[in-house]
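Co-fold these.
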Amino acid sequence: MIHKLWAFFIISGIFYALFTGNVDIVNEEIIKSASSSFSMICEIFPVIALWLGIMNIAKVSGLLEKFSKILSGFLHFIFPEIPKGHEAFGYIASNIVANLFGLGNAATPFGLKAMESLQDLNDHKKEASRSMITFLVLNTSGLTLIPTTIISLRMMYHSIRPTEIVFACIVATFCSTLVGLIVDRILGGKL
Amino acid sequence: MNVSNYILPLIVVFIVGYALQKKVNVYDTFIEGAKESFDMIVSMFPSLLAMIFGVNIFIKSGILKGLLKAMNPFLSFFHIPSDIIPMALIRPISGSSSLALLNHIFEKFTPDSYIGRLASILQGSTDTTFYILTLYFGSVGIKKIKHAMWAGLAADLAGFIASIVLVQLFF
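Predicted complex below.
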């Protein structure tokens, strides 16, 4: 699916640019995307290293396991395929909580660790498991309680009440998460 | 006051403090965990490069502007301001581009305008679906993603509709 969309982006983009005289910009973009993805990796590399370090402390001390027990009721309900007490729950729980607090930088390494342990449980290594898809839906729908970036951007543009949108954001992200989970259950044959 | 400024230090001090009390060698454990980042970065880079390459060509080609012109009569029928559409279309594809558009809307209309609030809620309602799908699945080598994209896009559409309804309901 992704490979078709990827090809569509490239082919439709280049053809459109050819017919509308935007070719110079696209030309530049082909070269630039390589270096901009490298600088992006360089930016997140140290942050990921830092969070994986802190995360490992939480894992070794048993805090991660304790923590996933708090959320276990909810997690067992939406991830019925993961065996009880599996370490994937700890990573999933940390990823969800980091997202809730608007700590996107920390959420990514936790999410990647969660994917690793979900891959251990996966029988077909090239195919996405049900739990993986459910986990990704939770992430793509952007469940957040404190939209930090938006609030600081509103402050930057001198909003009178920069936080007035917080409640609406929570309701909106709750709607999108719920719809995502329901569609996942229907298409995955879980309902 | 920014609450999130307190969250980070408190989390760090709590994790380290808890581990100390459990007699964990926190320094060595930290190093050991941080070492794993090399493998993670190496497995992330190809999918990230591919994604940025495809998405940037698509966005910079101006194809969305063309699409927007074709959609205009439909938008005015539903009273949806046309300035929000590029952002709604780009939101699932590129996080940095949609943030740039949010900046642009704040600059042009102020954050407290109808469209400024709508754009804020829209930005907060979902995350960058395409980025997360390529990154997370790419890092563990999943080739067949099944219905993950449809579920993600359905969530994005729900977020967009919810934003339009909520901004009229609350403000």
